[in-house]
Design a protein that fits this description.
- The structure is a homodimer of 331-residue chains.
- Chain A is α+β, with helices and mostly antiparallel strands and 331 residues long.
- The first copy, chain A, folds into 2 domains: 231 residues, 2-Layer Sandwich (Creatine Kinase, Chain A, domain 2); 88 residues, no CATH class.
- Chain A contains 13 helices and 10 strands.
- In chain A, the strands form 2 sheets. Chain A has an 8-stranded antiparallel sheet with strand order 2-3-4-5-1-8-10-9.
- In chain A, strand 3 and strand 4 form a beta hairpin.
- In chain A, helix 9 crosses helix 10.
- Chain A is globular, with a radius of gyration of 21 Å.
- At the A-B interface, helix 9 and helix 13 of A face helix 9 and helix 13 of B.
Chain lengths: 331, 331
């Protein structure tokens, strides 16, 4: 399972839920929105859990963007003109976004391939809320959601994959196209649109209707494991047939990351991705104890701004990013 | 003078001489060629000097190419179909090429700006030869040479300059064009034609007629010192106005040189050139004790082949080059 954890970075289960007696977030009043926030907070923290509540209106743009880069909240919640808020578990693994597109988005994130565990956790939180609050639910359709694509289970199962070997051998596009035919959605992570940064991809289910949560999770898991197998095979092939070129690329990445004095997000993501590959195929002893995915999050633009702790230009940000990377890799 | 030594890498004085009673090398027989070699060797080593004699025919192509890359012999001598040879001083600073384009090419190389010292040395060797052998000399024209451009003093004074600051700020072409107008020749070193590798340029006199050696040397020296001033000024400007970009480039060069597993000559020359600039403007403490110009010679293709000590492909050569650079910079 270790190898899979390297390729499968995170698993995520998100449940979309709405309350019966309230309008959807796009239509509701601020009073309704606040009432939902209060109710959710009371139910969750009244159940013995210890989640922290944060209101979007209390956060700076920077703080919101940092949370987005950390995948703790969605861009939609940050942009929401209505009263938005979120409840966060002490370990940051469970978040309940309130008044995003739906009244609730219950999200659990875990490391590696753990959709079932995430589903169990999200399901428990869901049960706690459902016990006290009346959901919009239809016997035939299932959970009613703001967007029809989420109706049914209201569940989205997502897996974030790091696929450098498939990417640098130009096999990724064909593979992902094939995967899309199987009814799953693929998108780049951190990139604009479907563009990927750092060879990170997110695979998630497209349909939420007509199958149980377990069936959907089983399907995604099978597809992901096939992609993981493919990535592993290409890594083996690269090691056997192109070891010199690969080693050169990986060491060059290390040389630049540990020496550059200025670096864009795009370049840093690519180089850290090479380093991560090098670490995982045993070519980079010196970074064996580094969490390189965590580093990928830390070097995102808003995380850098927050690290700098003051207003800085894009140029200064690139300098700070290079400094942070050097410190992280040398420490 | 320290700063000038950094920018002026080597000075060289070459004297073209021919013997009166022999045809020019392009026309002469092998017997004549061998007679000249024997005579020169007898005169030089009979005078108390201890020069080693090497025949071109005894050297492999690789050995000849290594000598060319070290600037000890010219490509013309290596290619000569006639009997070519050279006499070399124990410290490798003085070489007498025999039966190149002219019967003798007496060459002295020194570090930094030292044309006058090189002239003194070449002049002494010239005197030793002239005392015993009868030169082709005309009272009006001066020394008679195979190519009319060398007639007169038969002297070429050359200075090798390292001009990274002028190069990276795109001011080099205009400057060199201006310099050409002053009657001096400029060419890139190691590059094809006038292309420069590693921002190394060679400045030399074009005319050899109608002025004394001292006057020609004075003229070249003045022009070189002006270029050196210009390079120094741009370095100061870069440090004052573009320190971040410059530092980034220099540290990236260091990161790549100390980590890459494969590297072409062209890339290595460029990166070492940046490192040399970094060292000289005080940005690169870790290479303060390295002779980076020597490294530039060592990484030339034939020097790498000779270091590898067996037949290797271009790809393998790039791997060896990267290995050599890592070793040299880490030692």
């Amino acid at each position: 399972m270790d190898k899979e954890k390297e390729i499968v970075i995170t698993s995520r289960i998100r449940l979309a839920r709405n309350l019966k007696n309230y309008k959807f977030p796009t239509k509701m009043t601020d009073e309704e929105a606040n009432s939902i926030i209060t109710n959710a907070n009371d139910v969750i923290n009244g159940s013995g859990l210890n989640f922290s509540l944060s209101y979007m209106k209390d956060l700076t743009e920077l703080a919101k963007n940092v949370l987005i880069e950390k995948h703790l909240i969605s861009p939609a919640l940050a942009e929401n003109k209505n009263e938005g808020a979120y409840l966060l578990s002490p370990d940051n693994k469970i978040s309940i976004m309130i008044n995003e597109e739906d009244h609730f988005r219950i999200q659990t994130i875990g490391s590696g391939m753990c959709l079932k565990e995430c589903w169990d956790t999200s399901n428990k939180i869901d049960d706690i809320l459902e016990e006290k609050l009346e959901y919009a639910f239809d016997r035939h359709l299932g959970y009613i959601t703001s967007c029809p694509t989420n109706i049914g289970t209201g569940m989205r199962a997502s897996v974030m994959l790091h696929l450098p070997a498939l990417s640098i051998t130009n096999q990724i596009d064909r593979l992902l196209y094939g995967v899309c035919q199987l009814g799953v959605a693929v998108r780049g992570v951190y990139g604009e649109g479907t563009k990927s940064m750092g060879y990170l991809y997110q695979i998630s289910n497209q349909g939420t209707l007509g199958a149980s949560e377990e069936t959907l999770i089983e399907k995604i898991t099978q597809i992901v494991m096939q992609i993981v197998e493919k990535e592993k095979n290409i890594r083996e092939q690269l090691k056997n047939n192109n070891v010199d070129e690969l080693e050169d690329e990986i060491y060059r990445a290390y040389g630049l990351l540990t020496n550059a004095r200025s670096m864009s997000t795009d370049e840093a993501m690519k180089l850290i991705s090479y380093l991560k590959l090098g670490k995982e195929i045993g070519m980079m002893e010196s970074v064996q104890n580094k969490d390189l995915y965590e580093l990928m999050i830390k070097i995102q633009p808003n995380n850098i701004l927050s690290f700098a702790n003051k207003e800085i230009s894009v140029k200064e940000r690139d300098v700070k990013r290079a400094e942070l990377i050097r410190n992280e890799l040398s420490s």
